[in-house]
Amino acid sequence: MERLAEQKCEECHASSTPATDEEIVQFRPQIPDWEIRTIDGIARLSRTYRLSNFAEALEFTYRIGTLAEAEWHHPVILTEWGKVTVQWWTRKIKGLHRNDFIMAAKTDALIPQHEK
Amino acid sequence: MERLAEQKCEECHASSTPATDEEIVQFRPQIPDWEIRTIDGIARLSRTYRLSNFAEALEFTYRIGTLAEAEWHHPVILTEWGKVTVQWWTRKIKGLHRNDFIMAAKTDALIPQHEK
């Protein structure tokens, strides 16, 4: 299977097909540190990254946001001292699309080398 | 009373004095859009800013984070499409210090002109 981190998001509509259970099982080994959290009945991919301090958390947030703009798919990001929590889901389908798994993998690829 | 936005944070210790009720009453007219939210028994100053899109929310987040580093007092920041939520409190005293009101006023001063 092609690596998720190397794929591009496709345009998404309200009629787009959510990720199937079978796809999710296929995708998850590529993003092992992400969990699926259901908030207000909508599934999101969620991961909290630990970083050294606030400045690193802020820089990481900025990198994730820049990626989001480039792919035109946007997460929510919680920035704290030494910690960044990111959640990806697809508002238009009120759930998880293949795009979200791609973005989770791309987010993992942004982790500063010394934090890996 | 001196304007909060023009003051500097002072160094804070576990023994520092929290803001008194009287001070809070004095401070609040300078930060009228902030609310006090109690989370896990600890009071925080909280405000959600509306912005035009994700890119503006990200830039605003970065400006707040840069201010936080400069004053060495750090908030939590939730960045979403068109929305940034900021919370200030003082971990060392598990509550609100004068510093938090100063930072709230300084955060308000960072709002992009066209969003005011």
CATH topology of chain A: Gyrase A, domain 2
Helicity of chain A, as a percent range: 25-40%
Low-pLDDT residue spans of chain A: none
User: In which order are the strands of the major sheet of chain A placed?
Assistant: 1-2-4-3
Count of spatially separate domains of chain A: 1
Name the biggest interface: A-B, 16 and 16 residues
What does this structure look like?
The structure is a homodimer of 116-residue chains. The first copy, chain A, has 116 residues and is of the alpha+beta class. Chain A has a single domain (19-115), classed as Transcriptional coactivator/pterin dehydratase (Gyrase A, domain 2). The first copy, chain A, is built from three helices and four strands. Chain A has helices spanning 21-27, 54-71, 98-108; strands spanning 35-39, 42-50, 76-80, 83-88. The longest helix of chain A is centred in the middle third of the chain and has 18 residues, at 54-71. The mean pLDDT of chain A is 95. Strand 3 (76-80) of chain A pairs antiparallel with strand 3 of chain B, so a sheet runs across the interface.
